[in-house]
Amino acid sequence: MKKTNIAGIILLLQVLIFGVTFTALAAEQIVEFGSSETPPFWSEHLPEDGMAGEILHAMSSEIDVKSVIKFIPLKRIRKDLINNHVGNPDNFAGQEFSAVIPIAVFRAAFFYYKPNHKKEIIYRVLGDIKGYTLGVMRGTLIDIPFFDNKGIKVEQSHSEISLLKKLKNGRIDLCSLIKLSGIFEINKLFPKDVGNFVHFEIKGSVSPVTIMIDKNHPGGKELGKKYDKGLKIIIENGKYNKIIEKYYGKKKIPPDWFMQLEKFKYMFR
Amino acid sequence: MESKVKGLYIVLWIGILLMALTAPRETGATGPRLTPELFESEETIKIFIYEYPPLTTFEMPNKGLCSEIVLGAFKEAGVKVKIENQVVKSLAMYSLLQDNEAAMIGEKSDFSEDELKQLVFMPCYIMKGVYLYYKPRHNKELRWYGKLDNLKGYTYGALEGEDVTTYEKAGIKIKTVKGGILSLFKMLQAKKIDFLGVADIRGEWFVKKHFQKEENNFAKMKVPVWEAPFSIIFNKKHARSKEISKAFTEGFHKIKQNGKYIEILEKYGKK
Questions:
Q1: A residues 164..183 contacting B (CB < 8 A)
Q2: Gyration radius of chain A over CA positions
């Protein structure tokens, strides 16, 4: 075979490969979201970017959209009020969005470590933890004097891991965390001691996990509708439940999960 | 010497990398926010509602007619309550029955016999059911005179899951609609159904809100279809159940006597 023929075939192949790649990319819209590490909801160290990440990718694949999550420290992300985000919209007060789509929910809980307390702690109302030291994540406690006035000493930490270590060492009596994140981190940090950690869900603390499309994102409203459609599809075909059950356990999705999701959908409509 | 420096440099970099990987993380964007409101329930009784405009809704001042009546009665009784809208009816019921909250506002017919055993109902407003039709579709006034047979041959718009046997027995055609009551109104306007059934106060509200320009085209058939109370529902299992239901009764009696109850009804065009 002549050299020119071989060169021609190579060139043709290159054009074909380029064409196929270009067509694939053109058909698929790429949307970028900023997130901070919040395992197991959002994490670049977990398969498919964590539980909520997997939901986002599954709904995206149903609507020919490729969603990319960029993990950024929270301090930076909170200052960024111009890009798309994922998480709790409360953290982005001041930013306007053309679409906010709730894709999951989370709830907060108080955790304590049994071996450090001779007397069992039972939390029903805030008065039950009077006199104790409560560890919280920096930036999550909106009104520290409110807790001071209730006789609860507050100690702030910069991470869930640090809070749980302080809890085990007895530096704090209780800590407040996202319930699922707390359980996830305890299993990772103290796998042999899981049974000694007790948690109490904080009533009324259910909040949304959402995807937020900035108001200046081109075609934001339509994109929001597409995502909504994608979510509906994966809920109907069962993919959604399978993802949640990976983290909550089979048939252990909280019974009010979908009602809460519907409520938040209404509130962000 | 140079290779030792190079080695040290590599070790340093590995160290920095390890530090970066094991460094504690910042709190996430999906994070709990502990606000005082979250712990309000200790002193404040929560009354759960769902979107049922104009009786309980985000869309009206004081969250709707029944919310306003309940707030007014408790205010008279000196009990601090907060209305919390769960939007979805099943979630409001879940809060009452599973989370053992004190009370909600709703209808008796939504509960099972077993559930009814733990609940106490105190009506705040009596709804009247009416049949609505769309005048441009009919040359003459539609009348049923309390007998469904008079609407034989017409098409009734029903919501999914609604029991339509009495209509079928009367020779009325049925068209079932997915979605909410607004979908029914749209079917009526599109002349795909002849009439629908709705609580009069809700019917008036939907027409005003969604079909403002055509308000006069929607007409009520004269005889009411049913009557059903919209009530405050107390959970007997709640620790303060007796105290708050007693307070409500007293407060409700007071607002009926001092004219505040009528004042609220008039605000919503009712007496």
A1: 176-178, 181
A2: 23
